[in-house]
Design a protein that fits this description.
Blueprint: E1 2-7, H1 15-26, E2 32-36, H2 44-48, E3 51-66, H3 76-80, E4 86-87, E5 93-94, H4 104-108, E6 114-129, E7 132-139, H5 146-164, E8 168-172, H6 179-184, E9 190-195, H7 199-214, E10 219-223, H8 230-243, E11 246-250, H9 256-262, H10 267-270, H11 275-290
Parallel strand pairs: 1-8, 1-9, 2-7, 2-8, 9-10, 10-11
Antiparallel strand pairs: 3-6, 4-5, 6-7
Length: about 290
């Protein structure tokens, strides 16, 4: 089984739409599994109009808990917490949303009244879209440790893919360059980077390439909405050429894409002959060959 991770560096460039489209196209000829590791804002199932099959709580975070029967009200923990997660005048009170579970309060407590305990910080959801399976994570509001939650999603997605005997696992990664992105790339065979011809997208493309390069994972670049700003389009292609990166496709700006999304459908199935659909179909099989 091979795994393709689709990343962007910048949000809003069409990463999830492309992951859904490529997965749908390749599922016609191969056994494909999809994973959504953008746990802060999972939307791959929305793009696919997939139905929820099952959900379960995920414990991938730790927080402090005070035993008030043991607590001496010395308030040392209030002073020691660098995240201002413990407050109070008469007795210490933990603000759960601010607690990082670092353990400084537990170590400093003279009467051992504080413990660091695991807590539920997200969910793992399994979706189905006409036989195309999606494993997705969702971080609870205000919770942290999204990188650890991504790791849980990746492991479950690989387990489901192996049981399904999938030929290909397509992972829709989170935006940015932080811990969730790094966790999403674990064990990937190829990284597909989606960008758009805008200065901010080019800047973020360069940053995510540095991260991918650190792990020495092969990568290719796709320019979405490629014709909205010709000047930056030229700069992206120049950057790719000078650094030896493959430019796999230029998807034109196509109103069929947002029109299909507004209908809760994919453009490649609703408008198969649209200019963007034709390019995406060619891209899908190119990526399969690269893996």
């Amino acid at each position: 089984m091979k795994e393709i991770v689709i990343l962007s560096g910048k949000g809003g460039v069409g990463k999830s739409s492309l992951a859904a489209a490529i997965g749908t196209i390749l599922s016609e000829e191969s056994r494909v599994m999809l994973a959504d590791t953008d746990v802060d804002a999972p939307n791959l199932h929305l793009v696919l109009s997939a139905a929820l099959e099952s959900t379960e709580d995920i414990t991938a975070s730790e927080k402090a808990l005070i035993d008030y029967d043991l607590c001496s009200r010395c308030m040392i923990c209030v002073d020691i917490c660098r995240f201002s997660a413990i407050t109070g005048d008469a007795e210490p009170v933990i603000i759960n949303y601010s607690c990082e579970g670092c353990g400084a309060c537990a170590i400093s407590c003279p009467v051992d009244a504080i413990e660091i305990q695991p807590v539920v910080n997200g969910r793992l959801n399994l979706f189905d879209c006409d036989g195309l399976q999606v494993v997705a994570g969702a971080l609870n509001i205000g919770e942290s440790s999204s990188g650890r939650l991504v790791d849980v999603v990746k492991k479950r997605a690989r387990k489901e893919a192996e049981e399904y005997k999938a030929d290909l696992l397509i992972t829709d990664g989170p935006p940015g360059i932080g811990c969730p992105v790094i966790a999403s790339m674990k064990a990937a065979d190829y990284v597909l980077l989606v960008t758009e011809p805008t200065p901010s997208a080019l800047h973020d493309l360069q940053r995510i390439i540095e991260v991918v390069g650190h792990f020495k994972t092969p990568l290719g670049i796709v320019i979405n909405r490629a014709d909205i700003h010709p000047e930056t389009n030229v700069l992206i292609k120049q950057f790719a050429s000078e650094n030896g990166f493959d430019l796999l496709a230029e998807i034109p700006y196509d109103l069929c894409l947002p029109r299909a999304l507004a209908e809760g459908k994919l453009a490649i199935t609703t408008y198969p002959d649209a200019p963007s659909s034709l390019v995406i179909k060619e891209l899908a099989f190119s990526v399969l060959e690269l893996c």
